[in-house]
Amino acid sequence: MGYEKLEADHLDALKELGNIGAGNAVTALSTFLNTEINMEVVEAKLATFNEAANIFDSPEKEVAGVYLAISGDLKGHVLYLWPVQSAKAIAGMLMGMSPDELEFDEMTMSAISEIGNIMSGSYITALSSFTGMTFELSPPAVAIDMNSALLDGIISLTAVGDKVLIIQTSMIAYGIRIAGVLVVLFEPDSLLKLLESIGMGV
Amino acid sequence: MAEYFCGMGEWAVGQAGDILCARGLGSCIGLVLIDNKKRIAAMAHVMLPSSNGRSDMPTKYADSAVTFLLEQLRKNGSSMDISSKMAGGAKMFNVSESSLLDIGRRNAEALENSLREAGIILVSKDVGGSFARTVTFDVMKRRFLVKTIGRGEVEI
Questions:
Q1: What is the ipTM of this complex?
Q2: CA-to-CA distance for B156 and B141, rounded, in angstroms?
Q3: How many CB atoms lie under 10 A from the CB of residue A105?
Q4: I want to staple A75 with a disulfide (CB 3.0 to 4.6 A). Which of A61, A173, A187, B11 is the partner?
Q5: Rg, C-alpha atoms of chain B
Q6: What Pfam families does the record point to (chain A) (predicted)?
Q7: Does the beta-carbon distance from A145 to B8 stay under 8 Å?
């Protein structure tokens, strides 16, 4: 398929799916951390590679990312990204430690991975219930490095021409100043199937 | 004199005084073709191993990037006595069952094949691993630098 056939209605529908997924993910995290989390912005947009790879201010910005592969009825990718300070803050909450005391050791990485797993799992579960499709998620994989590098493989695999369709949710937990971005990218054929499943076939 | 940033799938040609740059490479590869006689060079930020016949963005794909960069060098008055260097092709996430599994490695292999077919020597490479790289090439000094977070900066 070519993304040129996607119209504003399709993007709105994908944004709505993003809302459903993100709502579920935020509730799961709020419950897990027992704190209020606000969902800031849900976007579904056709972006150029470089817009998609620059979610934070620079392609070299150091971030923590938790990645899960989506398989089953659809093929796609979920990546939850936090600036490193936010990743430390969220791991600190889980481990009952001050973020300043934390190193990115095995314990911290495991905590970050678990949070990414819970959020992405809730997000995808909500999509699955809504669309009636079955998804499987890989175990979470975590990495801390440059923002663009964590995204480039996923962007490469889901791109059509010089564009990629990204469903992106920004979340902020105000009390603890944690900012994170959850991105979902479906492989092009899967995106088509996803739209069909909600009666919005291209 | 300018600094050219090659985003994903993009390319640039530089002359003496210019810096060519590709930032935040994960599975992507920063390839530079260097004129051995004149101060001119070309860089590509390569994303995928194979174009499968697509010609929309030649430097997006390893199998079309080399020929395309050579053509750009020729148009810009290169001596066409060319060597090459490259870095990137990492596996950022330790996954076992995703299509992400080996894209970085396949990118590196495909580029090496293309270079071999074009008869261009690969002088040095820094590929693989599980860390991000930023590459810069100073056309005047012919210096190819690979920067990382936490692993410092090396010239290859």
A1: 0.93
A2: 13
A3: 8
A4: A187
A5: 14
A6: CheC, CheX
A7: no
- What's the pLDDT band for A64 if we cut at 50, 70, 90? very high
Stretch B98-127: mean pLDDT, rounded? 93
Nearest CA-CA partner of B94 in A123, A181, A150: A150
**Mean predicted confidence (pLDDT) in A130-147:** 92
Q: Which residues of B touch A55 (CB under 8 A)?
A: none
d(CA A130, CA A134): 10
Q: What CA–CA distance (Å, rounded) separates B21 from B36?
A: 19
| Rounded CA separation B89/B107 (Å) | 6
Alpha carbon dihedral A65, A106, B100, A157, in 10-degree steps, equals 0
pLDDT of the residue at B22:
97
Other residues' Cβ atoms within 10 Å of the Cβ of residue B72: 18
The verdict on residue A110 lying in a domain is: yes
Catalytic residue among B6, B28, B73, B90: B28
Average pLDDT, whole number, for chain A?
A: 87
CB contact under 8 A, B134 and A60: yes
For the segment A157-169, the average pLDDT, to the nearest whole number, is: 86
Bridge partners, residue B84, by sequence: B33, B122
Domain span at A59: 3-196
Does residue A202 form part of some domain? no
Active site residue B28: yes
Q: Does domain B3-155 have CATH number 3.40.50.2300?
A: no
Instruction: Extract the tokens encoding A1.
Output: 């398929």
Would you place residue A2 in the very low, low, confident or very high pLDDT band (cuts 50, 70, 90)? low
Q: What pTM did the predictor assign? A: 0.92
Q: Is A67's Cβ below 8 Å from some Cβ in B?
A: yes
Structure token pair of residue B95:
């996954």
